[in-house]
Design a protein that fits this description.
- The complex is a heterodimer.
- Helices cover about 0% and strands about 60% of the residues of chain A.
- Chain A is mainly beta.
- In chain B, a hairpin with a 4-residue loop joins strand 7 (about 60-65) and strand 8 (about 70-75).
- The chains are: A mainly beta, B mainly beta.
Chain lengths: ~110, ~120
């Protein structure tokens, strides 16, 4: 069974802090994704990576960056957290489209 | 403007009956469609997909129908079971504008199956 592990289920941070969300997959997939889920908006793609050190911006990359130094690990970075980044963050992986998701990180920015 | 729409935020169905979840899209370039299911406090799980060259795909109790001319797809669950109660996301890919298979999600429909 594919496992996508996100480092934290719940996280509370303050505005202006630099925040790191980590994701690890065990299936050796090239593609990894970061989404945020907000009520009424579904899942929106923040960043996508198709190989180590390779990344593409998604629909809402502003205020975020990513790092993929190893194939199994994909990190999402909030450079300077703001209250409008309070959300559920979901990491996913798959051979093509996102097929396997982590359980999400509920991030609150105070 | 949302390219993938699920106009029913919620749906209630009696156990054993059919659940029909609907999805509409606006971009005629989409060529692959997916349905995901999400329980509270868990990530979405991939459920079923359909390519634009087909009009129907079946997997056990789940069937997805695609009507390309109407830009409409639906997910049928027969018979519905209480364990099917979840949020269902419709998604589409292949918009023709990006170099990779970007998947665009709808806002989701919350299904409640009443015992």
């Amino acid at each position: 069974d594919v496992k996508v592990t996100q480092s934290s289920r719940y996280l509370v941070k303050r505005t202006g802090e630099k925040v790191f969300l980590e994701c690890v997959q065990d299936m050796d997939h090239e593609n990894m994704f970061w989404y945020r889920q907000d009520p009424g908006l579904g899942l929106r793609l923040i960043y996508f990576s198709y190989d180590v050190k390779m990344k593409e911006k998604g629909d809402i990359p502003e205020g975020y960056s990513v790092s993929r130094e190893k194939k199994e690990r994909f990190s999402l970075i909030l450079e300077s957290a703001s209250t409008n980044q309070t959300s559920m963050y979901l990491c996913a992986t798959g051979p093509y489209q996102p097929q396997h998701f982590g359980d999400g990180t509920r991030l609150s920015i105070l | 403007d949302q390219q993938v729409k699920q106009n029913s935020p919620s749906l209630s169905v009696q156990e054993g009956r059919i659940s029909i979840l609907n999805c509409d899209y606006t971009n005629s370039m989409f060529d692959y469609f997916l349905w995901y299911k999400k329980y509270p406090a868990e990530g979405p799980t991939f459920l079923i997909s359909i390519s634009s060259i087909k009009d129907k795909n079946e997997d056990g109790r789940f069937t997805v129908f695609l009507n390309k001319s109407a830009k409409h797809l639906s997910l049928h669950i027969v018979p519905s079971q209480p364990g099917d109660s979840a949020v269902y996301f419709c998604a589409a890919s292949g918009d023709g504008e990006t170099s990779y298979d970007k998947v665009i999600f709808g806002p989701g429909t919350s299904l409640s199956v009443i015992p």
